Fold this sequence. Notes:
By secondary structure, the chain is mainly beta. The protein has two helices and ten strands; from the N terminus they run ββββαββββββα. Strands 1, 2, 3, 4, 5, 6, 7, 8, 9 and 10 form a ten-stranded mixed β-sheet that branches. Strand 5 and strand 6 form a beta hairpin. It is globular and about 35 Å long.
Amino acid sequence: MQVEILFDGTLIGRSNLRPSDPTMAVAMGEFEPSSAYDVHVHAGEIDGVHIGERAYNLPYAIISIGHGVIRHEGVFIQDFSDSLDERHISVIIPDPDYETFFGKSLA
Protein backbone atom coordinates (compact mmCIF):
# COMPACT_ATOMS: atom_id res chain seq x y z
CA MET A 1 0.00 0.00 0.00
CA GLN A 2 1.55 3.28 -1.14
CA VAL A 3 1.54 5.87 1.64
CA GLU A 4 2.80 9.31 2.47
CA ILE A 5 4.20 9.94 5.94
CA LEU A 6 3.55 13.33 7.49
CA PHE A 7 5.07 14.71 10.66
CA ASP A 8 3.11 17.50 12.29
CA GLY A 9 1.43 18.16 8.90
CA THR A 10 4.64 18.17 6.80
CA LEU A 11 5.46 15.44 4.29
CA ILE A 12 8.66 13.72 5.45
CA GLY A 13 8.59 10.70 3.15
CA ARG A 14 6.84 7.89 1.32
CA SER A 15 6.69 4.12 1.56
CA ASN A 16 5.09 1.05 0.06
CA LEU A 17 3.85 -0.70 3.20
CA ARG A 18 3.55 -4.49 3.21
CA PRO A 19 2.40 -6.87 5.91
CA SER A 20 5.35 -7.69 8.14
CA ASP A 21 3.98 -9.20 11.35
CA PRO A 22 0.22 -9.81 11.14
CA THR A 23 0.01 -11.10 14.72
CA MET A 24 1.28 -7.72 15.95
CA ALA A 25 -0.54 -5.69 13.20
CA VAL A 26 2.79 -4.35 11.87
CA ALA A 27 3.26 -3.20 8.29
CA MET A 28 6.73 -2.34 7.07
CA GLY A 29 8.40 -0.87 4.01
CA GLU A 30 11.39 1.00 2.70
CA PHE A 31 11.25 4.65 3.70
CA GLU A 32 11.94 7.23 0.99
CA PRO A 33 12.56 10.57 2.73
CA SER A 34 11.54 13.98 1.45
CA SER A 35 13.70 17.06 1.89
CA ALA A 36 11.83 17.82 5.15
CA TYR A 37 13.01 14.57 6.78
CA ASP A 38 15.53 15.03 9.60
CA VAL A 39 17.14 11.84 10.85
CA HIS A 40 17.78 13.38 14.28
CA VAL A 41 14.13 14.34 14.75
CA HIS A 42 12.22 11.54 13.01
CA ALA A 43 14.26 8.33 13.31
CA GLY A 44 13.92 6.02 16.30
CA GLU A 45 17.04 4.09 15.32
CA ILE A 46 20.11 5.46 13.58
CA ASP A 47 22.64 2.99 12.13
CA GLY A 48 21.75 0.36 14.72
CA VAL A 49 21.61 2.69 17.72
CA HIS A 50 18.15 2.78 19.31
CA ILE A 51 17.24 6.37 20.17
CA GLY A 52 14.36 5.49 22.48
CA GLU A 53 10.61 5.45 22.37
CA ARG A 54 10.32 9.08 21.25
CA ALA A 55 9.62 8.08 17.66
CA TYR A 56 6.44 6.23 18.62
CA ASN A 57 4.93 9.28 20.30
CA LEU A 58 5.58 11.90 17.63
CA PRO A 59 2.71 13.50 15.64
CA TYR A 60 2.74 11.23 12.58
CA ALA A 61 -0.02 10.89 10.00
CA ILE A 62 -0.07 8.08 7.42
CA ILE A 63 -2.06 8.80 4.27
CA SER A 64 -2.88 6.41 1.43
CA ILE A 65 -4.22 7.70 -1.88
CA GLY A 66 -6.63 4.77 -2.05
CA HIS A 67 -7.71 4.70 1.60
CA GLY A 68 -7.17 8.22 2.97
CA VAL A 69 -5.83 8.69 6.48
CA ILE A 70 -4.68 5.39 7.99
CA ARG A 71 -5.42 4.95 11.68
CA HIS A 72 -2.27 3.76 13.44
CA GLU A 73 -0.92 3.14 16.92
CA GLY A 74 2.72 3.84 16.27
CA VAL A 75 5.37 4.67 13.69
CA PHE A 76 9.04 3.76 13.88
CA ILE A 77 11.75 4.78 11.39
CA GLN A 78 15.06 2.93 11.21
CA ASP A 79 17.70 4.97 9.40
CA PHE A 80 20.74 3.09 8.15
CA SER A 81 21.66 5.74 5.60
CA ASP A 82 25.29 6.07 6.71
CA SER A 83 26.10 2.36 7.05
CA LEU A 84 23.83 0.65 4.49
CA ASP A 85 22.26 3.50 2.48
CA GLU A 86 18.74 2.38 3.40
CA ARG A 87 15.83 3.38 5.62
CA HIS A 88 12.81 1.41 6.84
CA ILE A 89 9.51 2.30 8.45
CA SER A 90 7.22 0.18 10.63
CA VAL A 91 3.62 1.14 11.30
CA ILE A 92 1.24 -0.51 13.77
CA ILE A 93 -2.20 -0.61 12.12
CA PRO A 94 -4.87 -2.03 14.43
CA ASP A 95 -7.58 -4.41 13.27
CA PRO A 96 -9.96 -4.32 11.55
CA ASP A 97 -7.97 -1.91 9.36
CA TYR A 98 -4.90 -4.16 9.14
CA GLU A 99 -7.03 -7.03 7.88
CA THR A 100 -8.82 -4.72 5.43
CA PHE A 101 -5.53 -3.54 3.88
CA PHE A 102 -3.45 -6.74 4.03
CA GLY A 103 -5.81 -9.71 4.47
CA LYS A 104 -6.66 -11.97 7.36
CA SER A 105 -4.49 -11.65 10.44
CA LEU A 106 -2.79 -14.71 11.88
CA ALA A 107 -3.99 -13.81 15.39
